[in-house]
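Exercise 7. Predict the structure of Mannitol dehydrogenase family protein from Mariniflexile gromovii.
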Amino acid sequence: MTDYKLNNLNLSKLEKQVSIPKYNRSNIKTGIVHVGIGGFHRAHQAYYTDKLLSDESIKDWGICGVALLDFDTKIYNVLKEQDGLYTLVVKELDGTLTKSIIGAITEYMFAPENPMQVIEKMASPEVKIISLTITEGGYNYNEATKTFNFENPLIQHDLKNPQAPKTIFGYLTQAFKLRKERGLLGCTVQSCDNVQGNGHVAKEMILSYVKAVEPELVSWIEANVSFPNSMVDRITPATSPSDITGLLETSGIDDVWPVVCEPFHQWVIEDDFIAGRPAWETVGAQFVKDVVPYEKMKLSLLNAGHSVLGILGALIGYSTIDEAANNPEISAFLKSFMDKEVTPILGNLEGVNLEKYKESLLQRFGNIYIKDQIDRICSESSAKFPIFVLPTVNAQLKQNGPIEYAAFVVAAWAIYSLGVNETGDELVVKDAMKTILNEKAIASKENPKAFLEIESVFGKIKDSAEFVDIYTNSYNNIVEHGVEKCVMEMYNKD
Ligand code: CS2
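Solution. The predicted structure, encoded as tokens:
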């Protein structure tokens, strides 16, 4: 089989091997600027948009992908070399691979190289939506103070260098300023991150920043920018070297960075787009009035479920999520956590069969073909726990409900933060707060409560005697008996 480098020129030659964009990409105008062109965006929003563009009458919704951080230089270079094209490899439940080339990213920019180019693009009249996957930590929210974190050095940089910002807050401020000065219409900021009330949080954090730097812009934003909430879902592991070579060997596609993902995908969006939007509902997205209950369900079951499997699995010595999910002890623990602690706090979810949803999650986690990396799941846990796990604890504490399972996972995370698993192997801890997590983890060997003192993660949880008690017991039990034995005893007792 001849190998073809993935780019515009070779696209038609690949038609026999895989599905390729069915539209003329050079005719598509940019209607969306997307910040954060990692695997998830490319498996989700860009995938939906590519499907939409197959209707050749739709020409206004191409995506300009923005790589915001220095660290994103690789994806920018790949997209540039491949004319924005990449292969999406869906790993089906029976192990077959469905491959398609996605063409929705028609422009790409590297912000650190040319910040003004990005600001101009965000302010351009044809752009109606600025969407974001900037990760949970990207919203710069401090759990302890419940406010915007002005101490972040990158924010300090933006305050001093408004024309050459580094954070999304600096970019959006400049783009809104230009729109206002030029008398242009506003636009929608659409968060696609795993944050409860992601639109609300995006709005609150952006306005906090703008209030400090351009207070006269606040009322313009309030009147001209909308911030719909959305629930996004598709498990997208990091691409492995064998995904890349496998694609080349089986299809002759020389793609430096394909994206692999599960077949399941869901997107529930609040219909609040001030400058118009693509008809994503025609390709499977759901538009609803209030997305908050769906988000809560997904974050506290799926994402928290991931953290449970990730942290416990890492301590046992597993490297992929399916290994943890297919360990009967761990999966029974997860099921109890979901049923006993999460389900009671979800309230009424009209039209959702929660039992089926939970069942489907266990099946998705257990998919042996996905091989989602435990390292990926455990990375940035300091930004994930406050959104995925701790709201369940706080809600249960308020109603004197059960917290055993969640407290156990927090204790396991404290031990994980020592950086060694139960067989003595080193763990790759990737976390913006790695140093403090490790310091507190070491102090926790003497007094487990030390870990809970990180207020920007745990807020006031350390003040709950009940939580501290159960957490400390779990901590000591894990140290003494190991995760698997404790887990077995816990659900046998129930
Ligand atoms: C994961 C998510 O990062 C994580 O911890 O839980 O990336 C998860 O795979 C996606 O939200 C699935 O929709």
